[in-house]
Amino acid sequence: MRNISRSPILLGLAFACVLTLAATCSAQGPESGSIAGKVLLDGKPAPGVIVVATPDSSNPARMVERMLKPSSAPKATTDSEGRYRIEGLRAGKYDVAVSSRVLVSAGGSGHENEVTVSDGAVEGIDFSLLRGGVITGKITDSEGRPVINERVSVKNGVVTEGNPAFYTSMGNRMYYTDDRGVYRVFGLQPGKYVVSAGGSPDPFSDMLLKRRVNARTYYPGVPDEARARAVELAEGAEVTGIDIKLGLIGKGVVISGRIIDADTRTPVADAMIAYARVTPPASAKDDNDDEKDDERDEEVGQGLAGGYTTSNARGEFRFESVAPGKYKLEANAIAAFADAGGFYADPLDFDVQYANIDKLELKIHRGASISGVVAVENADRPDVASGLAGFMLMASAPGTQSRPFSQTVTKVSPDLSFRIGGLRAGKVKLGGMPYAQQRFSVLRIERNGLPVTDGFDIQGNEQIAGVRIILVEANCVIRGRVSVQSGSIPRDGFIVVNVRLVNEGGDSNQGSQVNSKGEFSFENLAPGNYEVTASLTGTSQKRRVATTQTVSVMSGIPAEVALTLDLKAKDEDK
Description:
Immunoglobulin-like, 5-stranded antiparallel β-sheet, 5 domains
């Protein structure tokens, strides 16, 4: 009853805040501004087209206004000469765009402009449009039956070196098949498109929910994008018959095997097993292309898995509908996500053609371990230690050409002890779990009273004990703003800021995208010196544009940072 009785009070306070912001919004000045322009379709005036001016949502008052009146964005409809005028605008920034699902911008540059209104009229905000094209077809299974609610990918442009593809939005209903298995994607720019269906954007969820997933298939029925046939789409054209039959690629191709302990040869149950497609080594390399080849290999090594499953009580696993290609099979202990884990597996390479593959054998090793206790530096308050139980620790080992990058996670026990098992021989570093919003951060690590500054060199099945991890309260803040000079951010670009703790043994390494004002904030940081880096990213970004500043942070005193990105500066100048 107590919570119920307080609800009207809380609602009243919230409503008062809304009224205050709304009042602020109404007090921002007279509604005397306007935006005007002309809309052309195929070079001729376009009557009856709606143009909308959406207020900048970074202003809290504007956000409240849009929340209370979701359809209140000012708009106007073009007249017989294609002219429009949106009147009664307050001073501020607006995103002005044509509201149409079937018209596209001439030249493919987008149909949205950012306009600043002060006092008076802003003229000449014009739009040049084309009629969008249509791609339609039918998705069926291997028996010719329609596949309902199957998501279709329509990717603009043929992927070549130096020409990254642009993926269209996948949120619209037109990207899904209906009860006939038919899809119809409209409002497309003229150009070449690669169409595909099947596969899964989230194979891990599919594994947990036991969903059956069709193999990814590209038009006209091939397993990989390199062999896909591009669909050429002219302005306003409708290309029909782009049909895809799923399942043929993977029909009858089943991958199965078991996972066993390498020493005892006993089966391993409840292991998480994943396979991923890999790029075969090139038969010959241009000496000048070594760097590009390394980048390509790195991308393959960090790609998403093609499928997940778990082993049964007999250690058996099975994958169905695997497309032809070269793959790598790996395994992890599911327990690694919650406690000390217990093993690592030898990766297994295999080649899929058009016959089933069975009797694959994954071997696991119990590996080395690191154990010890955690403590807090200068823990004078009695409530500090109470927050240590459940602190997430992570052991990470860098990847090499012969073994993959690996991470193992564990939680600190109520008695403040920890153990991380299943570690490979080699260099291993300990740290706090990043992005976990934990109350503490690793300050330093000791073993038998001596500092450990560069991780642990683990031998074979070595069991390392006597480790003491000293934590510090993570209550520091870095906030700031990024400004841009010598140009403007591309339409598909955005700025990301990363912070990294400089001192040895630190584990803070976080990233965040700036807001519409270029502002950023990082909380729950440990005291120390940080490198703060702002970088520009986006699909059209051809070179690295970044700037870095070092800042010292202390408890209770937010550190302020101002960064400037020079879009025309050379890499060596930054």
